[in-house]
Design brief:
By secondary structure, the chain is of the alpha+beta class. The protein is about 50% helix and about 5% strand. It folds into 2 domains: about 10-275, Orthogonal Bundle (2-methylcitrate dehydratase PrpD), CATH 1.10.4100.10; about 280-400, 60s Ribosomal Protein L30, Chain: A (2-Layer Sandwich), CATH 3.30.1330. The chain contains 20 helices and 6 strands.
Length: about 475
């Protein structure tokens, strides 16, 4: 059990309440805008994703009007429901960003929470207000993931779990809450904290709804705190707080508050080049490399993918072509991701459609075994080694220790913009001027007086 020698929760609330837009370094503003762009793109790309139509319909069935826009729906609902639906959409393709060391997807929770609340505020919200709220929420998120460094290994889904607190932190900035209100918001978010990797193991659509649950809970927590409801102030360090109850004392608590507002974790965020679990991305890159060297999918008799232990637990299941929920299963299957990349020479949103997953030319994924190796640290996310045995007896091996999209191997600006455009085209069939207006607005968000226009421009690009 962690000894409560410091009031970490109160320190965090104080730091969150104190920070101002002027405290954000220029590169943090630029990075935040790029990831806002990326997140709105993947939300648009999710318009046809399994479960999204049903989720939106279920919320609309209970509400006839509201203050906040369902980005993939036909109207408005209350901010809590909008945050839920839009957060789920942001994660539906598993194409959203990730802080690789912290093992958390951050913008899929924080941005929907912020957008849902700014629309409900009866005052002008500037682009800088949005950037500040998002940047602060992201910072809290990444620090929680780093401090609770083996949460995923314990079976928690840290995006869903830590997202509740992080979304509350972001919304507290939208609401301009003081230190005491912010502490209550973070505590109330903790009371609602949940999250499990069981939905990954079972291939359930609940996986994509998890970030929506987190965004919803964060919005609700901040709203209640603004109206006088109190939360546990020792939500981090208390005997039944996050550190002890959820993390069993396995934490580095100083990471949460150390140099807050000076050392920015958003700089270490990764953007995804492929719409599937980040744990599969190095295997995809290795497949593309081997294909460039002449290996064909039809050459493979059997194969082995070696990963760190945590990665293996997440994406190491045997490929099941007849899985009842094939999309989620394939998004979290290293063997399928490798097989699809080798067969097609690319991995796109189309790679994770039921027909593609069940096609004959990727069925050989079932012959590829996935193992953990002591060569890699248990929690290491980037390293991967593959060894493919061909029908004529050759053995082709390859290894890669870095991952595309990470700070040490970033996507280019052109690649980021191309991903955004392709997502708008896939989800909405949108191209040309509406997409360019939305893109230009986001990239100049720090100079926009009416930040709420980002929602109007998004709906215009959608065609309604």
């Amino acid at each position: 059990m962690t000894t409560a020698t410091r009031a970490y929760g109160a320190e965090l609330a104080k730091s969150v309440a104190a920070i101002r837009y002027e405290d954000l370094p220029d590169d943090v503003v630029t990075i935040t805008k790029l990831f806002i762009l990326d997140t709105l793109g993947v939300i648009a790309g999710a318009a046809k994703a399994p479960g999204m139509k049903e989720l939106v319909a279920s919320l609309e069935a209970w509400e006839t009007g509201g203050l906040s826009t369902l980005l993939l729906g036909s109207g408005k609902v209350n901010p809590v429901s909008a945050a839920l639906a839009n957060g789920a959409a942001a994660h539906a393709l598993d194409f959203d960003d990730q802080h690789d060391p912290a093992r958390v997807h951050v913008f899929c929770v924080v941005l929907p929470a912020v957008l849902a609340t700014i629309e409900a505020e009866d005052r002008q919200i500037s682009g800088r207000d949005i950037i500040l709220a998002v940047a602060v929420g992201v910072e809290v998120f990444c620090r929680l993931g780093l401090a609770c460094y083996n949460s995923l290994g314990k079976g928690w889904h840290p995006t869903t779990a830590f997202g509740t607190i992080s979304a509350a932190a972001a919304v507290s900035k939208v609401f301009r809450m003081d230190e005491a209100q912010t502490l209550n918001a973070l505590g109330l978010a903790f009371v609602q904290l949940s999250g499990t990797t069981q939905f990954i193991a079972d291939g359930a659509l609940a996986k994509r709804v998890g970030p929506g649950f987190a965004a919803r809970s964060g919005v609700l927590a901040a709203h209640l705190a603004r109206n006088g409801i109190t939360g546990p102030h020792r939500f981090l360090e208390g005997n039944s707080g996050l550190f002890n109850l959820y993390e069993r004392g396995e934490v580095k608590p100083e990471i949460i508050v150390g140099e807050f507002g000076k050392l920015w974790q958003v700089r270490d965020l990764s953007m995804k080049p492929f719409p599937c679990c980040r744990c599969t991305h190095t295997a995809i890159q290795l497949a593309l490399d081997l294909k460039a060297q002449g290996l064909k999918a039809t050459d493979v008799k059997s194969g082995l993918i070696e990963l760190g232990e945590v990665n293996r637990k997440i994406v190491g299941a045997a490929f099941d072509r007849a899985h009842p929920t094939p999309v989620v299963h394939a998004q979290f299957n290293a063997a399928y991701a490798f097989a699809a990349a080798l067969a097609d020479g690319e991995v796109t949103i189309r790679s994770f459609t039921p027909d593609r997953i069940r096609a004959d030319d990727v069925a050989y994924a079932a012959t590829i075994e996935t193992r953990s190796t002591p060569d890699y640290e248990e929690t290491a996310i980037a390293p991967c080694r593959v060894s493919m045995t061909t029908h004529d007896g050759r053995i082709l091996s390859a290894e890669k220790l870095t991952m595309k999209g990470a700070p040490d191997e970033p996507m280019t600006h052109a690649e980021v913009l191309a991903k955004f455009a392709s997502c708008l085209d896939w989800g909405f069939g949108a191209s040309g001027e509406p997409v360019e207006r939305l893109q230009d607005f986001i990239m100049s968000l720090d100079s926009q007086g009416d930040g709420k226009q980002v929602i109007a421009l998004f709906t215009q690009a959608r065609g309604r």
